[in-house]
Amino acid sequence: MLGFNEQDDAETAYFANYDKDWSKKHKTVVTSVNLEDFEKWIQSSHRKTKAFAEYKSVKAVRTDHQGNPVNADGTLKLEQIMSVNELTDDDFYNPIRNVQLPALPKNVDNSIGGNGKPVIIKKNIFGCNLERHSDLTPEDSRKILTTALYTPDLYGKNQKKKRPYNWVVINTKDSEGNYRLVLLEVNENKDNIEIVHWHYLDKRGLEKIKRQATNEDGQLLILPSEFSEEVGALSDPIRNLSSENKDTSSSSIKQAKEKTIQTEDAKKQERS
After folding, report:
1. Which domain holds residue 228?
2. Where do transmembrane segments lie in this chain (predicted)?
3. Any idea which of 117-126, 181-190, 260-269 has the lowest mean pLDDT?
């Protein structure tokens, strides 16, 4: 549906052109096709005298109620890619496919309870993210997805009560002071980990997420390294961690080392 991310929105816009009585007596018959095939049909010399689906040249594409391509058995039709860089500009501006991304690192998957499920972006989500974050370029989106999904520093549930299946993964500040966030739906009743949206985050946005987590009994945690799965469970909430604390801690360690060296030197002088 050109100009619409979901079938329901397209139908609402269509019936808005007619009065309510007429709309109640009619219904739409939606046939999904590739954009290229539709354009060929429009440009053909034949008069359009019957329903679109009745033309022999039309090859229908199965979709769900959100307009996402599906297989004959109703499952999502997924195109697997080996790298986030394989996402094209059209995927972000004019999406036509659902995409399966490379597998998450083990430490990320374990932390969010992914159980090794594939990570996907549905066609309608590409469109929704474009609407919500129209300032993002395809290059921005690829950068956010790559860093937040595969090298995150923080993770957690910031809306544990309202959206219990949702997890945020965040890659902390880049050179411009932006955080990069991806919101994931990890539902045990679904076959895939579904990306909900992605965007940049400033310091105020991060503070908001911390407050949300506190208000809903959630936590924003430091992600364990790939070599230490236990650290994530033992880490304090990120709200107790600041750059000042980290600087102070590093300074204290340095001072302690210097004092130890001075003490050892004094002992050596006494012996001599």
Report:
1. 62-241
2. none
3. 260-269
List the one residue out of 99, 94, 70, 98 whose CA is nearest residue 84.
99
Q: How many domains does the chain have?
A: 1
1 found inside a domain: no
Quick check: is 254 in a domain? no
Does some domain include residue 195?
yes
pTM of this prediction?
0.66
Q: What percent of the chain is modeled with pLDDT above 70?
A: 64
The pLDDT tens digits for 251-260 are: 443 444 444 4
Residue 56 within a domain? no
Report the range out of 125-134, 218-227, 242-251 with the highest average pLDDT.
Answer: 125-134
- Mean residue pLDDT of the chain comes to 79
